[in-house]
Amino acid sequence: MRRWVRAGSWALCALWLAVLAAAAIWLAVRLTPLRTVTVAGQTVKVGAAPPDWRMSGPGDLQLFGQTLPTEATFSGPIRPLLKLTHITESSQVAQLVRSGNHEQLEITAGHSLASGWVLYGVQETAVAAGIMAVALLAWAGLRRFPRRRTLGILFCGVAVVAVANATGFYLLASQTPDALRHVHSLADLVGRSTAANVPRTEGPDLTDVTAVVLGDSTAAGTGNRPLVDPDALDRACRRSADSYAGVLARTNDRKVLNLGCAGATVHDGILGVQILGDQVAPPQFAEAQRATRAGVVIVSVGANDVGWADLVQLCAKAPSCDDKASTAFFQNRLSRFALDYRSLLHHLAGMPQHPKVVVNEYYDPFGSDVSCLRGEGLTVAKVRVLRARLSVLNDVLREGATSRGFTAVRPDFTGHELCSAQPYVQGPTDRAPLHPSAAGQLAIAVADQRALSR
């Protein structure tokens, strides 16, 4: 009988150690600092994604605050977490590219990621063992175990953690270092660029242009006064004389080329053509390349990419705005935008004149008073969800801009939101609801001018 009781006690102790080891590993994955490596001129932090029970799958890539599945797949329940934190081009990478030695660049990239993963595994094992040791010492102290028994429990616990981590990192995930060595570039992790090359459109250089505006209907100034002498594309893009580009031009007495177009996204409008009925707008970036002396490029993009107008309409008609369907829709569109946005930033950084790039974040159209929107189906609770999603989009815009050393600007519409006495935003009955009014465009121009002055 005693033998069975003793066997049961050992089994219970082993089960307790296994549970405690799993908790220690789970916590260590979240506490262990990521390893920083430089890959193809871009700073990447390497760590482990939260473990799951699947025996294979993609890793996690954090791009501008968004978690995306990697293109590469990995074996084992513990898979890599790769965080892109800074984008630049080092002199070493530039030299390799100019010399055409891409093989050396690929070897450097893959081996850097693989080494970072192995070193992270060692560091995470040490952290997990430390967590386990502290937990067992606290338990032994509460139970007032003798020193010999305490040391025995401590040894067994640390051994269990080490074996579990070795199984997760070096046995089940034994192919991960080799898979990372086959990552030749960041494109292998996040997918290929939206447009690998955007050739400039035909025509003479626009040498008198000193600033270029790229973007969507916010940049176009949609809903305000039309241009004095618009052409067919100006009308199709719904460009306005009150756009912030026009304000900047008049204020600084400079030539500003406004390529903003209603409905434009990064993929369809800025880096690719945009179909506007019987009009075809060439890629805005292709047109911008003709402005060979432009020292400033201002970008307003993202709302159409994430389907902002659709989200607002769904929110207005639905009982609530934070249901699973609309949340999944937003996250999916935001993830796709993060990849396209990365491609756009890459193209902007490669402009030969190295202009100062300003990325406009989006203004908050909603204030604390939503009484004028009740007839549209928007309540305080719904507006709170919309503002939270707009804030996430702005986080992506800001993190992407700063990762390239660009300037991010958020116009301040405080006190002039919808339902206020003097709104900077067009209301539900105006020509372009939720878009900036002429006063709102002026506020955006003021914010941009301050950034450029700094």
Specify the overall morphology.
Answer: elongated
The number of helical runs is 14
What is the topology, as strand order, of the major beta sheet? 1-2-5-3-4
Number of strands: 12
Radius of gyration: 27 Å
Full CATH superfamily name of the largest domain: SGNH hydrolase
**Largest β-sheet summary:** 5 strands, mixed
Helix and strand run: HEEEEEHHHHHEHHHEEEHEHHEHEH
CATH architecture of the largest domain: 3-Layer(aba) Sandwich
Low-confidence stretches: 89-107
The multimeric state of the shown protein is single chain
Give the mean pLDDT: 86
Number of domains: 2
CATH class of the largest domain: Alpha Beta
**Share in helix:** 40-55%
Architecture overview:
The chain contains 14 helices and 12 strands. It folds into 2 domains: 2-190, no CATH class; 211-453, Rossmann fold (3-Layer(aba) Sandwich), CATH 3.40.50. Helix 1 packs across helix 3 (102-143), helix 9 (244-252) packs across helix 14 and helix 12 (324-349) runs parallel beside helix 13 (380-403). The model is unreliable at 89-107 (pLDDT under 50). It has helices at residues 2-31, 91-99, 102-143, 147-171, 176-181, 187-190, 217-220, 232-237, 244-252, 284-288, 308-317, 324-349, 380-403, 438-453; strands spanning 35-39, 42-48, 56-63, 66-75, 80-87, 211-215, 256-258, 274-276, 279-281, 296-300, 356-360, 407-409. It has a 5-stranded mixed beta sheet with strand order 1-2-5-3-4. A 5-stranded parallel beta sheet has the order 7-6-10-11-12. It has a two-stranded antiparallel ribbon with strand order 8-9. The protein is α/β, with parallel strands linked by helices and 454 residues long.
